[in-house]
């Protein structure tokens, strides 16, 4: 396995396996990225099955892995699994990849959480799909655009603040009508409101690390990182 890929550092039980690919050794051609997705199982010797890819639309739909037929890409922005050997996967290139598992290692999920998905409730939908008491969940936030690089307008800040006035703490004034948005902080707030307090990760910035990460905001048309999680058989 590529040594440059990220293995989450979180207190997940041994039955939970997860990783995030980087752009190490690859270009940013989207067509090349599609080929790499097809070959990913060959690059990860202990991957139990092909990842269950989704057609991501910045929404809140959560697919249950047990109901996905291999070769079919359902429209969804999160996937949950309760069966060993099924690999949940999301693709990101600035948006936040959020991985979830329960303390007993019986349920996992992966969510694609850009600002639209966060605002609409993809985290809430993903936690609900876990079918586990939220206080028993662990969360890990993968590489996303950092708070010093993610400029948004008044309308984005307003969407979050209407949902929760405390969301204002995740926005720093940057220019007239412009704010720097902290996706990691917004995700932590949403998780805490659900009673998910064991949260790890969230220390990267895809925009400012061009040698390591893809970034749509920085490069436009680009590749993606894959965030995978599964229960080991």
Give a description of the structure.
This protein has 233 residues and is an alpha+beta fold. It has one domain: CNF1/YfiH-like putative cysteine hydrolases (4-Layer Sandwich), CATH 3.60.140.10. The protein is built from six helices and twelve strands. A six-stranded mixed sheet has the order 2-3-6-5-7-11. The protein is globular and about 50 Å long.
Straight-line N-to-C gap: 19 Å
Q: Treating each run of at least 4 consecutive H or I residues as one helix, how many helices?
A: 6
Q: Can you write the helix and strand succession as a string?
A: EHEEEEEHHEEHEEHEHE
**Number of E strands:** 12
Quickly name the level 1 CATH class: Alpha Beta
| Structural class determined from secondary elements | alpha+beta
List keywords for this structure.
12 strands, globular, 233 residues, single chain, CNF1/YfiH-like putative cysteine hydrolases
In brief:
With 233 residues, the chain is α+β, with helices and mostly antiparallel strands. The chain has helices at residues 30-43, 115-120, 122-130, 154-163, 183-193, 216-219; strands at residues 16-20, 62-64, 78-81, 88-92, 96-102, 108-113, 137-141, 151-153, 171-175, 178-181, 198-201, 225-231.
Write the layout of secondary structure elements.
Elements: E1 16-20, H1 30-43, E2 62-64, E3 78-81, E4 88-92, E5 96-102, E6 108-113, H2 115-120, H3 122-130, E7 137-141, E8 151-153, H4 154-163, E9 171-175, E10 178-181, H5 183-193, E11 198-201, H6 216-219, E12 225-231
Parallel strand pairs: 2-3, 7-11
Antiparallel strand pairs: 1-12, 3-6, 4-12, 5-6, 5-7, 8-10, 9-10
């Amino acid at each position: 396995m590529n040594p440059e890929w990220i293995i989450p550092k979180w207190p997940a039980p041994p039955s939970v396996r997860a990783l995030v690919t980087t752009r190490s050794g690859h270009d940013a051609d989207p067509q090349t990225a599609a080929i790499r997705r097809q070959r990913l199982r060959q690059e990860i010797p202990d991957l139990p099955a092909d990842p269950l890819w989704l057609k991501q639309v910045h929404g809140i739909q959560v697919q249950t892995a047990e109901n996905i037929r291999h070769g079919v890409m359902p429209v969804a922005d999160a996937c949950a699994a309760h069966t060993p050997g099924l690999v949940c996967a999301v693709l990101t290139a600035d948006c936040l990849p959020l991985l979830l598992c329960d303390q007993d290692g019986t349920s996992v999920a992966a969510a694609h959480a850009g600002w639209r998905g966060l605002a609409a409730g993809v985290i809430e939908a993903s936690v609900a799909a876990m079918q586990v008491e939220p206080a028993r969940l662990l969360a890990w936030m993968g590489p996303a655009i950092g708070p010093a690089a993610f400029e948004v307008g008044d309308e984005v800040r307003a969407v979050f603040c209407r949902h929760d006035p405390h969301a204002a703490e995740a926005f720093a004034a940057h220019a007239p009508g412009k704010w720097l948005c902290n996706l990691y902080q917004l995700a932590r707030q949403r998780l805490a409101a659900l009673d998910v307090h064991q949260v790890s990760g969230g220390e990267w910035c895809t925009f400012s690390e061009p040698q390591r990460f893809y970034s749509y905001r920085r490069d436009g048309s680009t590749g993606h990182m894959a965030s995978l999680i599964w229960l080991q058989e």
